[in-house]
Amino acid sequence: MVQGYNQEEGIDYKETFAPVARIKAIRVLVACDAHIEIKLYQMDVKRAFLNGYLKEEVYVMQPPGFENNEFPNHVFELDKAFYSLKQAPRAWHERLLNFLLGNDFRRGKVDNTLFLKSKGKHLLIVQVYVDDIIFGATDNYLCHKFSKMMKSEFEMIMMTSLTFS
Question: 20 to 30 Å CA-CA from 6: which of 58, 61, 95, 159?
């Protein structure tokens, strides 16, 4: 079993911090939405932490039901993050960051969880909160294109229009 509480900083992992959008940043995005008159959408990444790649060597015991009777003392080496690993949020964020930057997004200078992409006179805005993604654009086609791009790389829960009550 993965037992995150047994991990030791500097040995099993170096960094756990992953930037997370503050509620103030989301409020600013909503205010921009009202001012620019764009429609905001929300997507959720299924099992987000399992998408993160590990930089460290991490070994786990054989899970119940998957034991090898020939080699009962062997362990598995993980190459992807697990939810109970302390570095899982960081690994997921780095994977998403590299994916967005590799698709011509630029990162906000003040807010590391904000991503922007320009296409001619149109702008696509993406705000990331762990595995929840809020986005909107001045051209709705960019929203659909973004949704399709994300679904091609990650398993996503359907895009829905963001509503306020």
Answer: 95
